[in-house]
């Protein structure tokens, strides 16, 4: 595929609200052309596979199926307030005491 025209790259930059110097426009045009060529190559491979099998190739987001690895929720011993506050540097009224970070008028 021929390189994307500089005007199209400049237009894309304007749409994305990116201020881009002329030198970067040329560099980005080459990179965007490589990306468009890669997508065309994948599209061509999908079309060839569909012609060969006669079946549509399903779209996928990952090459390998994803599984969520979780463990069952099991309730264990509950941490009491006294246990939690035992390691605190300062406590007051069964709460952690921390330094003030906001001014008086907050």
From TrEMBL:
Coiled coil: none
Catalytic activity field: L-aspartyl-tRNA(Asn) + L-glutamine + ATP + H2O = L-asparaginyl-tRNA(Asn) + L-glutamate + ADP + phosphate + 2 H(+); L-glutamyl-tRNA(Gln) + L-glutamine + ATP + H2O = L-glutaminyl-tRNA(Gln) + L-glutamate + ADP + phosphate + H(+)
Record-linked Pfam families: GatC (PF02686)
E.C. numbers: 6.3.5.-
Keywords (A to Z) from UniProt: ATP-binding, Ligase, Nucleotide-binding, Protein biosynthesis, Transferase
Molecular function per GO: asparaginyl-tRNA synthase (glutamine-hydrolyzing) activity; ATP binding; glutaminyl-tRNA synthase (glutamine-hydrolyzing) activity; transferase activity
GO-annotated biological processes: regulation of translational fidelity; translation
Record flagged with keyword Nucleotide-binding: yes
Known function: Allows the formation of correctly charged Asn-tRNA(Asn) or Gln-tRNA(Gln) through the transamidation of misacylated Asp-tRNA(Asn) or Glu-tRNA(Gln) in organisms which lack either or both of asparaginyl-tRNA or glutaminyl-tRNA synthetases. The reaction takes place in the presence of glutamine and ATP through an activated phospho-Asp-tRNA(Asn) or phospho-Glu-tRNA(Gln).
Family: Belongs to the GatC family.
Quaternary state and interactors: Heterotrimer of A, B and C subunits.
Descriptive protein name: Aspartyl/glutamyl-tRNA(Asn/Gln) amidotransferase subunit C
UniProt organism field: Quadrisphaera granulorum
Lineage: Bacteria, Bacillati, Actinomycetota, Actinomycetes, Kineosporiales
